[in-house]
Amino acid sequence: MARENNAVKLRRALLAKLARLMKDGRLAEGVDGIPFEMTREGWEVTGCCVHHDRALIRLRLLAMLGFPAEGLSDVERPLSGYAVSAGAERPRGEFPLTMVTEACNACAKTRYLVTDACQGCLARPCQTGCPKGAVSMLDDRSHIDASKCASCGLCEKACPFHAIVRVPVPCEEACPAGAIRKLEDGTARIDEEKCILCGRCIAACPFGAPVERSEMARVIARLAAPAAEGPASRRAVAIVAPAAMAQFPFPAGKFAASLRALGFDEVVEAAQGADIVAREEAAELARGAPEGGGMLATSCCPSWVRAAGRIPGMAEKLSAAPSPMIAAGRLIKARDPGAFTVFISPCAAKRWEAHRPADGESVIDAVLTSEEIGTMFLAAGIEVNEAQASALSGASEEGRGFGAAGGAANAIAREFEGMKARGLAVPELRATAVSGLNPASLAAIGAMKPAGEGTVTLLEVMSCEGGCLGGPCTIANPKAAKVFLDKYKAGLTA
């Protein structure tokens, strides 16, 4: 989902300004000035006026400080009033997305329009093929009556001149779970019960209305904690997902060294957790999988875990193994309960997974996106390519491959082969990888049946196209990221 447009550039510019203020210890005194700094000479007004643009910037900054951007009763409260508590611990179970309602364009519902390419032809297949009688002729051109149109799209398919076009609502079209609802004024809201936190609405909305509630302020505050608090209380550990490593065109060892330069005391590969997950899921499969007829679905992707709960009978087929993030967090907390663990990935759903109350444990203290860690490097003046490479923890190539679609299935299959080589009696393995959730793929998953007797089925599901490399908070183009991931897998860390 990596892309460069003005909405993305604005988001990254605001993150960078916040990171610099936090690094310099000037957040409270400088944050209120950011909307004015951004809209000085040269700013292209995008709303009704510059004052409206400043108000939207303020709300985006509010979300970046970790607060909701909608439904506020204290809209006049300065950002500096929020800044003083931005570094505080967040309650478990908070929804990690918010909507800058004032930025929402209140797009009309998806509809079909007739363009100037219409030839007013004799055949008029658009008219004759419409099941609702919504198409008529007006001034020698087709006309679609929106009050009768059922948005079936048959007219678009029938037109030989491609003169009829579909005008979608971007956030609704991007959402695979139907979680976008409209209020009476047409503005969009996220239905928290239906949302799977895939982040596609963030990438799709051209107005930048859906945004994440960042934890960057908490992390920077913790990294800057004075030594007087004690080494155990401030020891910070970065857990880096393979897909996060692949967002930067530098050797993984230099990336790890740059994280240490930010103030992290230790850098751990999430791939170590992936190795644990592969072993545990292979063991589940070898036992015949959980109840559900010999089918096991991976539990690595939190968006998929949320989606699975909406497919009848699928939740029972989810693996009991944790995600690589949780597995790595458990390793760290087992040897150092006081460690402050920060997970870094391009995923929007990891904040929910890290803080959901259902887990009964808290092994991940904060989550940063690839965008956020990149802006922190910029704010600190860290040149990643100039860093002296640090040694990494030594995860397997298969564990490092979890960031790409099919990576988990490959690692589990490798574990299966190892079991066979050791003379263990295991069933035959049939693996299916689903890359990208949408209504069609969700329906196909719901219709899947387990294999016959003597065979177990592994279902690997990744919410994003291409796996985590296609996450909503990526920096690198997915194809370039795949090249970087392959180098990382091969151990090219220096």
Structural domain count:
3
User: Could you describe the largest sheet, including whether it forms a barrel?
Assistant: 4 strands, parallel
Rg over CA atoms, rounded to whole Å, is: 25 Å
End-to-end separation: 28 Å
- The proportion of residues in beta strands is 5-15%
Strand order of the largest sheet: 10-9-12-13
Number of strands: 15
Global outline: globular
Structural class: alpha/beta
Describe the structure.
- By secondary structure, the protein is of the alpha/beta class.
- The chain folds into three domains: 6-103 and 177-213, no CATH class; 111-167, Alpha-Beta Plaits, CATH 3.30.70; 220-489, no CATH class.
- Helix content is 37%, strand content 13%.
- It has helices spanning 6-23, 27-30, 34-38, 50-64, 79-83, 125-128, 154-158, 170-174, 200-204, 216-223, 231-234, 242-245, 252-262, 270-286, 302-308, 324-335, 350-355, 370-380, 397-400, 407-421, 439-446, 478-489; strands spanning 97-99, 111-114, 135-138, 141-144, 164-167, 180-182, 188-190, 210-212, 236-240, 266-269, 295-297, 340-345, 366-369, 428-435, 455-462.
- The strands form six sheets. It has a four-stranded parallel sheet, with helices on both faces. A three-stranded parallel sheet has the order 11-15-14, with helices on one face. A two-stranded antiparallel sheet has the order 1-8.
- The protein is globular, with a radius of gyration of 25 Å.
Q: What is the compact description of this entry?
A:
This protein is α/β, with parallel strands linked by helices. The chain has three domains: 6-103 and 177-213, no CATH class; 111-167, Alpha-Beta Plaits, CATH 3.30.70; 220-489, no CATH class.
